[in-house]
Amino acid sequence: MEEAIRTVPRHLFLPNAPLVKAYGNAPVDTKFDGSGRSISCASQPDIVAMMLEQLDVQPGQKILELGAGTGFNAGLLGYLVGETGHVTTIDVDQDIVDGARSGLAAAGIHNVEVILGDGALGHAPNAPYDRIEATVGAHGVPHAWLDQLAPGGRLLTPLRLRGSVSRSIAFENQDGAWRSVGSQMNTFMPLRKGIAHDPRVFVPLDPDHTVTLITNGDQKVNADALSDIFRQPHTEAWTDVTFRGPESAEYLELWLACAMPNGLSRMPATNEAIEKGLVTAPYPSSTAVFEGGTLTYLTRRPYAKKAPDGATVYEFGVIGHGPDAEALASDVADQVRTWNQGFRALDVGVDIQPLDATPLAPKPGRFTFDNPLNRIVVEWQ
């Protein structure tokens, strides 16, 4: 995988980007909607590498990629499968397809076919595939992806589980059931235009638009009730749950997304909003829970005691605004403690089930969600 990244020239797929951007470890936006928001980009190289490791591509395999983007990832896949393998990549926009074809031609990669179409439908003419990789976010797993996978194959998709929380999950069919064999935290541009269109709504929370709530179709949001929310009464709830400075809280975020009735949302805030005191510095991933006209978000503060090795330890807290801020902040804080006490040390598995599957019995740490395509089961075990 490292050899592929060192060999395939990324700058050829980003002809309008300076070299420092083309080879920097950051995403590069390449297409924008009418409001100026990015709708396509070249993914961050370390995320690309992480997903290639999850996919476990082997020479000679047939690969389907959903979301051609710049074509760079398809080029890496083409390098990994070699001359005896083949890659099919799909995108919904003609200009993106044309750009990917140009980049692949410039790089001298000839075992990749770029198709214009709805990625949610896959590409049956070239099926079955040994590996299917979605490089776009999906809320639910399109049936075509599962149907077009060869026996023993692997599907890798950034699956939006609930609210803004998504994970790059590798699935394999084990005894007739689709089960995760690994997952990593990440977020991708959502599928657009086709049968699995997954729109986002951006809700400004202050008049200057320095804090924004990002919501999804599975969440109920009253934008008017949340406008200028930070003028509403303020409350704090501290949890006594701690993390070392560099430690990831990704599974806490997943727990809150599953446990809270309206899921968990991203709430990016500018430095200006923090410096003005409009918001207390949110936890780095800027996670919020909202209900009606009430908003809460995670924050942290240095804990009274340091780790034995001297590292800084932080305590998680919840900031709330709105008429029911105290109650909602208390509920979120209780869920943080519940996760810490009973589930923090456990692994998490994700299963895909048909919507008409027999419902599983209720169990602590098991959450079941229906989306328009499947039933998703998230379980701490």
From TrEMBL:
Enzyme's top EC category: transferase
Gene Ontology MF terms = protein-L-isoaspartate (D-aspartate) O-methyltransferase activity
Subcellular location(s): the record lists: Cytoplasm
Q: For this UniProt entry, what's an example GO CC term?
A: cytoplasm
Transmembrane intervals: none
In terms of InterPro entries, this protein maps to:
Methyltran_FxLD, PCMT, SAM-dependent_MTases_sf
Q: Is Cytoplasm included in the keywords of this UniProt record? A: yes
Q: Pfam families from the xrefs? A: PCMT
Which keywords describe this protein according to UniProt? Cytoplasm, Methyltransferase, S-adenosyl-L-methionine, Transferase
An individual GO BP term: methylation
Query: Any idea of its EC number?
Result: 2.1.1.77
Give the UniProt family note: Belongs to the methyltransferase superfamily. L-isoaspartyl/D-aspartyl protein methyltransferase family.
**What name is this protein filed under?**
Protein-L-isoaspartate O-methyltransferase
> Origin organism of this chain?
Streptomyces gougerotii
Instruction: Tell me the organism's taxonomic lineage.
Output: Bacteria, Bacillati, Actinomycetota, Actinomycetes, Kitasatosporales
